[in-house]
Amino acid sequence: MTAIVVFDLDGTLIDSLADLAAAANRMLHDQGLPALPNETIGRFVGNGLPKLVERVMKHCGLEPERLKELTQLTLAYYNAGACDRTVVYPGVFEALDELRDMGCVLGICTNKPEAPARHVLGALNLLPYFDAVLGGDTLAIRKPDPAHLRASFEALPAVGPRIFVGDSEVDAETARRAQVPFLLFEQGYRKSPVSEMPHTSSYADSAELPTLVRRILQNEALQA
Question: Which residue is catalytic, options 8, 15, 19, 171?
Fold first, then answer.
């Protein structure tokens, strides 16, 4: 049985907080404002860059009508340094290799804009693993709208059980609304306790991921 496994990107496969924070803080510097700690900006991650900028602006008292302008400025700074400090989480390459060896078809569903998502995936040697990459601006909708995730599954050249892997409340809600199994990475950017987030299974080490996918496939086979 072939599984179709779609991943979130930031906080699931890669730790990109340092570069996101750097871009946001460069934008704030241009407004004559002090930098925010990475931990503070981390609380604003999860719904795409425009929402991150909106939350930073609200936190710092910047005028809401400047959202488009400051989002574009932050995106420009992010694109210029998207891979300066971003790293792949330990065990991700090995897990992706094993999933591919199992016959799984892999995709990306992220609220990060598609162009920088593809750039980061390519720079970190992750892009060859994925047959489809749908970003937050690929469609007119984005997570937690389940249509974003469904479109990501449908963009993949396979038929089989569908599984979503992510790290956040947005990802958990997307999977719930799309009615697909959800594997929750515990070391990402979630704000809530794992126990309060709907999920099929959770994992703290990416090396556990292939075993969890096999478990879902076994359950699917028993129910068939």
Answer: 8
**Integer Cα distance of 101 and 98 in angstroms:** 5
Q: In terms of C-beta density within 10 A (0-12 exposed, 13-18 middle, 19 or more buried), how is residue 218 classed?
A: exposed
Of 70, 109, 92, 86, the C-alpha closest to 22 is 86
Largest CA distance in the chain: 61
pLDDT at residue 165, rounded to an integer: 98
d(CA 55, CA 40): 10
Domains of the chain, earliest start first: 4-15+86-223 (3.40.50.1000), 17-80 (1.10.150.240)
Token pair for 158: 């396979």
Question: What's the helix, strand, coil split of the chain in %, to 5?
Answer: 50, 15, 40
Is 8 marked active-site?
yes
For the chain, what is the total number of helices (H) and then of strands (E)?
Answer: 9, 8
C-alpha 137/C-alpha 178 separation (Å) is: 19
For the chain, which residues score pLDDT lower than 50? none
